[in-house]
Every structure is written in C-alpha cells, then in structure tokens.
Write a structure and sequence with these properties.
The complex is a heterodimer. By secondary structure, chain A is an alpha+beta fold. Chain A has one domain: Ribosomal Protein S5, domain 2. Chain A is 25% helix and 36% strand. In chain A, the strands form three sheets. In chain A, strands 1, 2, 3, 4, 5 and 6 form a six-stranded mixed sheet that branches. Chain A has a four-stranded antiparallel sheet with strand order 10-9-11-12, with helices on both faces. In chain A, strand 1 and strand 2 (38-44) form a beta hairpin. By secondary structure, chain B is α+β, with helices and mostly antiparallel strands. Chain B has one domain (12-234): Ribosomal Protein S5, domain 2. Helices cover 27% and strands 31% of the residues of chain B. Chain B has helices spanning 93-106, 133-147, 174-179, 206-234; strands at 9-10, 13-14, 26-30, 38-44, 47-58, 71-78, 118-128, 157-164, 167-170, 182-189, 194-198, 201-202. A five-stranded mixed sheet of chain B has the order 3-4-5-7-6. In chain B, strands 8, 9, 10, 11 and 12 form a five-stranded antiparallel sheet that branches. In chain B, helix 1 (93-106) packs across helix 2 and helix 2 runs parallel beside helix 4. The model of chain B has no long low-confidence stretch (mean pLDDT 95). Classes of the chains: A alpha+beta, B alpha+beta. Chains A and B meet through strand 3, strand 6 and strand 8 of A and strand 5 and strand 7 of B.
Chain lengths: 250, 236
C-alpha cells in the first residue's frame, strides 16, 4: 500500500482520486445537539466529528478577573476506531484539543471580555467538547472547523437568581474572529492537504496552521519529524490560500 | 425522587403531547461508523446514542481469554454536552453500572461459543440525553451487533416504563424520569420474551410493576419492528 500511494503521488495523484490540494467532501450539520448551547457535526470524507459547546458559570482566573474562560477537551471515543480504547485522553487527544484551543484562543475568536458576569467573581466558562465518531485522518482540521461552526451557533443561556435556565437564551455568544485551521502534510517531496488515514500514516512531516480572516497566522504546530525553512514557507502560503476555501463553508 | 407541583399529565396528554402508551419519535440507522465492524445510530425523541462493535478480535492480555467462547465487553459513556450542566468527560460510577447491566442484557442473545479466545467490544456513546439513555444504548448495541454479522438468537429490544401523576407510561423522557413515581428499564428478546435487563427505582405496587412489564413487552413490538426495518434499509 505504501509503494502504491507513493507511486501515485509521484504522478500528483492520490488513492481517492483527489488533487494534492483538494479536500475530501465536507459535510456540515449545525445545531446537532439541542442540549448543548452550540453544536456542529463535520465530516471530511468518512472522518466524522461532533463538537458540543456548553456554557457554565465559572470563577475567572485571578489575572483576568473580568474575562470569560475557554476550555477545550477532546475524547477519542472507542466507537471511532479499532485503535481507540476506553480510558482517559491519550497524548493524541490532548494534543488535538490543545491545537484546536490555541487556534480559537490566540485568534481571539470569542470576545471573552463580554462574558463577565461579576468582576472577579463570576464569568461565563465556554467549554468546547470534541468527540470523534469515525477516524479517517485529519482529525485536527475537522475538529477545528466543527469547533468554530459550533461556536457560531452558540447561544448564551438566561440566568435567574444565579442559576442558569437551560434552553432559554439571552443572546448569541459574541465572536470577534474566525480562524481556519489547516494541516499540510509532506510526503515524498509533495505537499498534500486533508490527508486520509492511510496517507497520514505515511507522512514525512505535517504542519498545522491556523489563519484568521484578516490573513494573520494565529497558531502553528509541527507534528512529525522535521521541515526545512523553505518548506515551512511554502506550507504557510498554501494554508493561507486554502483557508479561503474552508471559510466559505462557515 | 424529586417532587414537583407541575402536572406531568394534563387532559390525558404528557408534556410532549404523547398519550401514556406512546413512544417518542424513533430514528434508527445502521452502518454509520465506517471503521467499526458494526454500528448504529438510535434516537428516541432527543435521546441519541451511537453504538459501535469491534470484533470478534484478538483479546490481549491473553490471560483474559476464554478457551471455549468469546468474551463480551460493553462500555457506556456520555458526552459532556449530552446533558444540561456539562458532565465531566469519562465514565463515572453510574456509567460503570450501566455498562455492566448492558453486557448482561446483550449476552443472552449472542452465540459467544462461536468465537473462542476473542473479544467482542461494544461501545455505546450517548451524545444527547433526555431520559431512557440505557435502553436507547441497548437498542443501538443490538443493531450494531446485527450489523457486524455476529450470530444472534434474536435482536435485543429495550424500552423504559414507569408511573407519573398516577398513570402508567412508557418511554420516559428526562423530565418524567426526574419526577416519576417509578422508572423501569427493560430489555428482552422478542421471540422468547426472555427479559435480559430489569431494573427499577421508585415506589409502586406489585400490580403496577407487573402491568408496566406487560406494557413494555407489548409496546416493544414497535421497537422490534423499527430495528428490523433499519437493518433492511442498510441493504436497500
């Protein structure tokens, strides 16, 4: 299989007939979970991810007493792959959650300053929970897109006597920016986007880049082996370019 | 059991407009997780479960293997966003117990002796909870096992019943569950009417328990039919 994939790439072809810089079919379903304040299900081919956003009343961090809190968690549930098992999140799940979190946090996606309820005492905590339903590669890009879309659907619950009234809302979650996260893999001298699992396992290297709508890069993570400067430059340009395509889907 | 002044049945209708013996809208799909050997999506109203079956596959560590049959492992898990107040990820004591009774509910339907030294892993993921999650999970597991082609004596049908406002009902939603006078989840094999899951909490008379079991066995026929339809739709 390895030989086959590499031979195809030599001819700028891929096992599923895509171009090197072509995404798989992307399907988006919004408001998938009515219980959550925001949610989205995103499929990249047969990679399938559900993100739910819950809001809870939290204590602010001492250094930002009037800012809301963001936390991102991911579970690689064993329904999604024969290689996933029950138990606490492993390093891959934690890395994924942190990369998605960084894209959202550093781009200032959420206007956290508008989420203060009582300075130094109470703020909204925005909890993004990522759940993998089927794993066929490129979980990070699918999760980041699902997280962003879920945030765009998120509503703020009403509060009465310090209690949250679930499923009644006072408004939308204030968003300032919209980052798109794209991972570009290097394989046999070629650069590919949206690798499926078989390709992902053969990558020489991969770099994940989050791009804001104003073109600013807000997070990066090299996830395998090494890259040369010119390769990184090329990947950044490609990521900025391809982010426009995904942005149209939001 | 919590108390509420709110009436749960008004003019013979429940909060969501159902009559006492009505089941919520049911959606069932199989083959929804390509990586799994078998999988299913089941929704009763808002309560939504995925189930995936991996196996029969090699069981490691080897000392857990049974020389004359497969072992069955079931895991029930709830998404943090499946409930009103976010739930901490990972199984709690409740999930561990539900996993255990789920395994016991499913096991009698399987010919485990066909696959010695292996494991059959059944994973249930509740992505939205509005009451009756364990029976929804068992219905999903039943379909996922059938989808995986694992030999079964019968499908496993599961449904809850209980009592609210002095009325016996079936298929409790979350609010009814919270304020019910009784909650009885049941799973059974429709052909033989063997009951493979039976739990109960509440305070009702022996006769009401017996009536609820009878109601569930009867209404379960609709769930059985839906399961069979979902399996047939896979091959349309």
């Amino acid at each position: 299989m390895k030989e086959y994939i590499l031979n195809l790439l030599e001819k700028n072809k891929r096992i599923d007939n895509r171009k090197l810089d072509e995404f798989r079919k992307i399907e988006i379903q919004k408001d998938f979970i009515q219980r959550a304040e925001g949610s989205a299900r995103v499929k990249f081919g047969s990679t399938d991810v559900i993100v739910g956003v819950k809001l809870e009343i939290s204590e602010p961090f001492p250094d930002t007493p009037d800012s809301g809190i963001l936390r991102t968690d991911a579970e690689f549930t064993p329904i999604a792959s024969e290689d996933f098992f029950p138990g606490p999140p492993n390093e891959n799940a934690i890395e994924l959650a942190r990369i998605v979190d960084r894209g959202i946090r550093e781009s200032e996606t959420i206007d956290l300053e508008k989420l203060c309820l009582e300075k130094g005492e109470k703020v909204w905590g925005v909890c993004i929970d990522i759940r993998i339903i089927n794993h066929d590669g490129n979980l990070i890009d699918a999760s980041a897109l699902a997280a962003l879309i879920a945030l765009t659907t998120t509503k703020i619950p009403k509060i009465k006597d310090d209690e949250i009234i679930r499923e009644e809302y006072s408004g939308k979650l204030p968003l300032k920016h919209k980052p798109i996260t794209i991972s570009i893999g290097k394989i046999g001298g070629k650069f590919i986007i949206d690798p499926c699992l078989q390709e992902e396992n053969l990558l020489d290297s991969i770099l994940t880049v989050s791009v804001r709508e104003d073109g600013k890069i807000c997070a990066m993570q090299k996830r395998k082996n090494s890259l040369k400067v010119e390769e990184i430059n090329k990947i950044i340009d490609l990521a900025v370019n391809k982010s426009k395509e995904l942005r149209k889907l939001i | 059991m919590m108390k509420t002044d709110e009436k749960l049945i008004i003019n013979g209708k429940r909060l969501d407009g159902r009559k006492p013996m009505d089941i919520r809208e049911i959606e069932m799909k199989v083959g929804v997780i390509p990586n799994a050997n078998g999988s299913a999506y089941v929704r009763f109203g808002k309560t939504t479960a995925f189930a995936a079956v991996y196996g029969p596959r090699e069981l490691i560590p080897k000392h857990l293997q049974e020389p004359d049959k497969a072992i069955l492992r079931c895991y029930y898990n709830m998404a943090p966003f499946s409930v009103s107040d976010r739930k901490r990820p990972g199984p709690d004591r409740r999930a561990v117990e539900i996993s255990k009774v789920t395994k016991l509910a499913i096991e009698p339907a399987l010919f485990l002796e066909e696959f010695p030294e292996t494991t059959i892993d059944v994973y249930i993921d509740i992505i939205q909870a509005d009451g009756s999650t364990r029976v929804t999970g068992i219905n999903a597991a039943s379909l996922a096992l059938a989808d995986a082609g694992i030999p079964m004596r019968d499908l496993i049908v599961a449904l809850s019943g209980g009592k609210i406002d002095d009325t016996l009902i079936i298929d409790l939603c979350g609010k009814e569950d919270n304020y019910s006078e009784a909650d009885i989840p049941i799973a059974f094999l429709p052909n033989t009417k063997e009951i493979t899951l039976l739990q109960m909490d509440g305070r009702i008379t022996p006769q009401e328990v017996k009536d609820t079991i009878r109601n569930i066995l009867k209404a379960g026929e609709q769930v059985y039919k839906k399961q069979k339809e979902a399996l047939k739709n896979r091959y349309k």
